[in-house]
Specification:
Helices cover 73% and strands 0% of the residues. By secondary structure, it is mostly helical. It has one domain. Helix 9 crosses helix 10. The radius of gyration is 18 Å and the shape is globular. The C terminus is likely disordered.
């Protein structure tokens, strides 16, 4: 692993700092396909890294007044429950099945990022949080779903959380991004706790990787004003399609007969 492996935390942090998400979507493939960790270890470690990094990002948004604590606690509480349950459910999934599901999530995330922001969504920016009551039932339902996904495949779920907070929680976009980082941090902590005892965590490496990732999120936050967001979002979506397609192809044995695709699953991700 060495220094190069630790430095790979930089793009993970840059993604979180410049896009407000995507950290786990980069971290899991880096841990599995570049650094050679098993899928379950990679998912657990990505939750630790993204949880800490999101906390740092959330602190900056809190100082800027972009965190709605009430919504964060409501959404975060149910999402944490879902994340813990998802992490415990992971014991019943093969490593290849988790990676295949992870690839599908990447492709869904890419579809969200390819979509241009609609005028209706933009108009929400001008709506005060108190203008409409939070649709608690729908928010709770989506929180559980995002939480289970977080625990099962290791994604923070920002690409799902932000739309939910804007459309269901009726938050302005800036508050949705800041509040989402709080939820991601809570989500990741709960998901990671669910993996304790299931996998062996390389604590020293995780600590160094997280330190580099935090540096990346701080740099990304400062650079974001100089980069066109639409171009950046679309470039990242292309990367997701490529990576998601490759991971899904390599783990196609999950959905195809073993005789046709069993050899395609890398040894590192087999149970």
């Amino acid at each position: 692993m060495g220094l190069l492996g630790v430095l790979l935390g930089l793009p993970v942090g840059l993604s979180l700092g410049m896009l407000g998400g995507g950290g786990s979507i980069l971290a899991v493939p880096i841990f599995v396909y570049v650094l050679g960790f098993g899928a379950k270890e990679a998912i657990a470690m990505s939750l630790a890294v993204v949880g800490v990094t999101s906390s740092v990002g959330a602190a900056g948004h809190w100082r800027a007044g972009n965190v709605n604590l009430r919504v964060a606690l409501v959404f975060g509480a149910v999402a944490m429950l879902g994340a813990y349950l998802g992490a415990r459910l992971a014991a019943f999934f093969s490593a290849a099945a988790q990676l295949a599901l992870f690839a599908v999530v990447m492709l869904v995330a890419a579809a969200f990022m390819f979509r241009r922001r609609s005028p209706a969504a933009a108009a929400v920016d001008d709506v005060a949080p108190a203008a409409a009551g939070m649709r608690s039932g729908l928010v709770a339902l989506q929180g559980i779903a995002v939480g289970v996904l977080t625990g099962l495949v290791g994604v923070g779920g920002g690409f799902l959380i932000v739309p939910a907070l804007v459309l269901l929680g009726r938050l302005p976009m800036k508050q949705a991004v800041g509040t989402s980082l709080v939820v991601i941090a809570l989500n990741a902590a709960a998901g990671f706790s669910g993996y304790l005892g299931q996998v062996e965590v390389q604590w020293a490496f995780v600590g160094l990787f997280t330190a580099v990732t935090v540096t990346g999120v701080l740099v990304g936050t400062s650079l974001v004003r100089f980069v066109p967001q639409e171009a950046l979002r679309r470039a990242f979506a292309v990367l997701l399609v490529i990576m998601g397609g490759l991971i899904l192809f390599q783990n196609r044995g999950v959905v195809l007969p073993a005789g046709d695709a069993g050899a395609a699953v890398p040894e590192a991700v087999r149970d």
